[in-house]
Backbone:
């Protein structure tokens, strides 16, 4: 199975934010990404979160989400889309997935492999991010023991997808507060081949005990920040 993957579009009407995020170019770049995935013969697409960014009104934020999802849904490729902190600080999770038209991804079987999607848009106190929140440095995967159980039950190679970072090579402000526990669970499972992450816009690639940690560079900061891989 061939998969197209990209992250951190941060689509909004702004020309630039934070000095380096070219928000309003992401619609054009998303179209280019889907054209690329189509030419490459991808079977599915994964987006790792931060699809949209804040506007002055929620009506405009909703319009942006509808616009970029209409583009994505105009291609006949199934898309598995995680929420990032920027999405979760603007949209309630149910509202987000109702507008996107994609279900919240959890576990997908792909040619005998498992694609496991994790939502770490939680504060360390266990509360999910909600509209109006803004502390992106507090990120946490609740019920890590559930992940351990889940991995034990799965057969076959497993690939993990998460917006925030587990890789210790990424600055700790971007990492889960319980990254060490999650890192050890992944390592000890003996089943995980790779972990794909977004959130850290510069991107980073590491490998520990044969497990690849790939942090994709952000679409909003670069041209051609879209990739394919096979499982
Ligand atoms: Fe981002
Ligand atoms: Fe993020």
Residues:
């Amino acid at each position: 199975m061939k998969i197209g993957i990209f992250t951190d579009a941060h689509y909004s009407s702004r020309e630039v934010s934070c000095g380096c995020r070219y928000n309003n170019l992401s619609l054009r770049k998303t179209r280019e990404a889907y054209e690329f995935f189509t030419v490459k013969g991808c079977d599915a697409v994964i987006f790792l979160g931060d699809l949209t960014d804040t506007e002055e009104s929620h009506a405009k934020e909703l319009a942006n989400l509808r616009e970029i999802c209409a583009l994505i849904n105009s291609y006949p490729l199934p898309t598995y889309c995680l929420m990032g902190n920027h999405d979760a600080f603007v949209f309630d999770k149910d509202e987000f997935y109702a507008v996107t038209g994609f279900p919240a991804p959890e576990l997908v079987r792909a040619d005998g492999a498992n694609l496991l999607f994790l939502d770490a848009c939680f504060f360390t106190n266990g509360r999910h991010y909600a509209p109006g929140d803004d502390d992106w440095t507090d990120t946490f995967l609740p019920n890590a023991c559930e992940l351990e159980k889940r991995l034990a039950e799965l057969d076959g190679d497993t690939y993990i997808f998460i917006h925030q970072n587990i890789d210790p090579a990424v600055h700790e402000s971007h990492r889960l507060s319980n990254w060490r526990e999650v890192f050890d669970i992944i390592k000890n499972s003996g089943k995980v081949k790779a972990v794909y992450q977004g959130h850290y816009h510069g991107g980073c690639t590491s490998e520990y005990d044969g497990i690849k940690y790939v942090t994709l560079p952000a679409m909003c900061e670069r041209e051609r920040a879209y990739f394919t891989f096979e499982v």
Remarks:
- The mean pLDDT is 97.
- Residues 50, 84-86, 163, 199 surround fe (ii) ion (ligand 2) (CB under 6 Å).
- The beta strands are 2-6, 44-47, 79-81, 107-110, 113-118, 158-162, 192-197, 204-208, 211-215, 227-230.
- The chain has one domain: 2-230.
